Structure formats: C-alpha cells, structure tokens
C-alpha cells in the first residue's frame, strides 16, 4: 500500500472533484481491493460496491445524492454490514482501509455518514433487511482548489485541527497523560490515530496504556452518536482508529493483536471497545 503513516498524514477530506472520470486501471484496482477487503477485526463481514451515479440517474442526481455537499463526483464506494455486535467498528476499520488505498492511488475521498441520501444508495446496492448502510465516500480526482463550500465546511468542523496528545492518550492511572517520550516506539502508532478522520472531527478516541497493552475507549457524545437509527458514527470512528493503529504497527514491524479484555478500572464511564496486546 506504500508508506502508511505518510498516507495518513497526507489524507484530508475532498469535497470538490474534477469531472474527469477515473482511469480504468485505477478503477479496476479499486474494485479488486474492495472485493478482498471484507472482514473486520471483530469478525463481521462487510461488503463494498463501487457505484456510479452517472449510470443510474439523471445528471442532477450527482449533487442531489449528497445534498450539494460534494461537488463533481459521480463515483462512490458504498458499504453495508449486518447489524451485529461491533459492526460499526468493523465497518469503520474496513472502509478506512479503502480510503487509504484510494489515497495511495492519488484519489480524493470524503467519509459521509450524514450528508447523503441513504435510501437512494441503499437501493443501488440492494441493501438487505438485516443490513445497515453506515457511510459512503466519493472517489475521484480532487480539484486543484477547494470549493468555497468545502472550505466553509472544513472551517466550521475545524477539520485541520486535532486534539493534543494529553487529551487523547493516558497512562494506567488515568491522571497522567501519556507523553510521546513515554510512548517510545509506539508513539507513531498513536500519532496515526490522532491524525485520523472522525465524524464532525469530534475525535472520540481515548487510549490508556498499561504495560504491554493499549486499551481503546470511545468518548462519545450521547445524542450525536444516536442521530441515525442503528448507526453509531463515533463507533465507526473507533474502527478508523484501530485501522490506523494496526497498519502503523505493521509498518514498523511491531507485533501485537486485538483482544477484548476489559480492564478492571473504570475510565470515567467511557465505553470500552478493544485492547491491543503487544506480542512478546
Ligand atoms: C464516520 C464519519 C462520518 C462523516 N460524515 C460526514 C458528512 O456527512 N459530511 C461531511 O461533509 N463530512 C463528513 N465526515 C468528514 C469529517 O468532517 C472530517 O473527517 C473531519 O472534519 C476531519 O477532516 P479531514 O478528513 O479533512 O482530516 C465524516 C467523517 C467520518 C469519520
């Protein structure tokens, strides 16, 4: 996939696209990637399809489908997952892999969990009764300059900003933040989590380090995380964090695995998601 931490640093949401269709070769490569990327770390199966609005609908559907939030794109990655335990995390994990893969092909993307017509896209991929369609992303060539609307959205979501290390990463007693120095060789993995995209840029990831383990928690905003029936955007964010952490670990040759071992301590009532245990 190329240098993952560089891709993570480089990626940002693209909301204005050139009309130019994607090269056939890149499109095929993306399709192939989608069909191989079907299992999340919790074992849920996801499915992704490449949907071309230009083929399905009149021209104006291109903007209608995303309420005008996205300009110029007609190709979308649309995904579905069965409504099971940890389905949101698995979906987030797999979809973020798609996003990074598209980034490595020089394509722009933008996670969309709210500002798109879910029912239209559901029809296009024949969504089944027990499935949900958590999010989509357009893919295409970014325009040289961001559109005004894109700049306004980015500004209001504070998209460039990220929380500081001390607000996201903690040592076991939770009173002390985990500094970059103390994170040592694991610092780049945490930095990759910190730079990730999240719904409305709320960055709900919190990580507590114990010797040999990193515990992942979700600091969700109750009302926000339940905006869409059956879909929890901030649990999707947690899957994105897992994706970035794991890919960066692989890149640096740091072995470990995902385990569910809820620690005995309570982390200020936050939702426990998963832990990453270093292999010795
Ligand atoms: C799960 C999820 C859902 C999102 N939904 C939307 C959306 O509906 N509309 C939109 O314009 N951006 C959406 N975003 C993009 C975020 O606003 C964006 O990732 C964040 O502001 C950080 O900016 P960046 O991606 O440019 O780094 C979503 C992101 C995630 C992870």
Mean pLDDT equals: 92
Apparent shape: globular
Could you tell me the strand content as a percent range? 15-25%
Unreliable residue stretches: none
Number of helices: 11
**Quaternary organisation of the protein chains:** single chain
Helix and strand string, N-terminal first? Answer: HHEHHEHEHEEHHEHHEEHEE
* Main sheet specs: 5 strands, antiparallel
Percent helix: 25-40%
Rg is 18 Å
Strand segment tally = 10
Bound chemical compounds: flavin mononucleotide
Secondary-structure class = alpha+beta
Q: Note the gap between the termini.
A: 26 Å
Overview of the structural elements:
The protein is of the alpha+beta class and 280 residues long. It contains eleven helices and ten strands. It has helices at 4-10, 24-36, 53-56, 61-64, 87-104, 118-124, 148-156, 165-168, 180-183, 187-194, 233-252, and strands at residues 46-52, 75-82, 108-109, 131-132, 136-140, 169-171, 205-210, 213-218, 256-259, 271-278. Strands 1, 2, 3, 4 and 5 form a five-stranded antiparallel β-sheet that branches. It has a five-stranded mixed β-sheet with strand order 6-7-8-10-9. Helix 10 runs antiparallel to helix 11 (233-252). The longest helix is centred in the C-terminal third of the chain and has 20 residues, at 233-252. The two termini are 26 Å apart. The model has no long low-confidence stretch (mean pLDDT 92). The chain binds flavin mononucleotide. Flavin mononucleotide (FMN) is lined by residues 12-13, 69, 110-115, 135, 153, 157, 159, 197-201, 233, 236-237, 240.
